[in-house]
């Protein structure tokens, strides 16, 4: 089934949306009711002009661009020679087929080689494009989206019905963060939760949304064909935004004014993607969350206001390089290298601690997050809106067009969201103030701590002591450490690395 989405159909949809009477939206003072009316209209008109249609499978040319029309004709001739050989079973027919097949294989190889040589030559001045081509050659990053016929729930239970598999996937994804958080030992020092966050006396104000702001935000999103739970993609939104911006702006302003995030914007469609290992094990898959397209726009509007507030009061640590404008991984690496280089110049040892968190975004405790946001000045309507955004979220898993039942998500920040990463870096922001002796470099959830000194034995003792303090901070904040290996190695220039 595909959408009948022609240029003419989209043009007709635009006309209907432009001429529609949106009074049902404007008459509502409840953001849920207003959004429900808006979404119902958009979707019904979309269904009217771009209905789902069954199409007959047609013969398509190879998606390999080096396979030319001439090569396709040669492949047909090779197949005919093979059929003739299987019928005649003569030595002459066999030789004729094999010679032609070998010659064709060489022609295809040459054509493929010349195709990629041309592409690489054309992208010589573009490093990013060159790597993309090289990765496509070695198939790096490509994922087989086909699922096995069965999955192992445990040693004795095997699931082979798609609905059961989808439900089990959803149950696994929803509970993975919650189960990890349960394993974290209860800290005795919960009163210390916010002692590293200086309370901001100022509060965040959510300014009004304009039509032009919404249109400009939509332009920044990538042209992706992936659809949300309502079958809507960003390409469609871009083609109709000018005709629906007035009612949608009303909904956004209503949401910000009342502190209510529309419920239908909280439904995530989740696609399991195989990571590694056995394909029949649920634990070897990661979730790709597809959130409602309109939700992304509303989130981006809030993030723009949150960013201005954070910048105005300098709320984020200078040591955080993730999900921030004009900052990058290379800048984080440069800070670390500079710190180590200074230690070398002073003839000091350096001990580095590299921290890996298990499912960092999934284990975020909502009550702890809201407590921290309040300390940073997210109060009043902004606090209410933020709580509404996190509460009562749900998701379902879709496999081969079969949907699981919906389940509530009780912890973590929404994966695939615009706002989620920003909330995460605010959540872990105070880690930089926990230790007075360890220097901290952060890129989102990747945390590097290091310390330098002339006496190696004292340095290691200091680091061990500070790590115990940090471990308590992780426990209080319900963040699970992923300690795979611990390695201490002494190398030249008095540098010691302490891996976690």
Automatic annotation (TrEMBL):
The record ties this protein, via InterPro entries, to: DNA/RNA_pol_sf, RT_dom
The protein's name: Reverse transcriptase domain-containing protein
Q: Look up the domain of life of the source.
A: Eukaryota
Domain Reverse transcriptase stretches? 254-500
Q: Which organism encodes this protein? A: Oreochromis niloticus
Cross-referenced Pfam families: RVT_1 (PF00078)
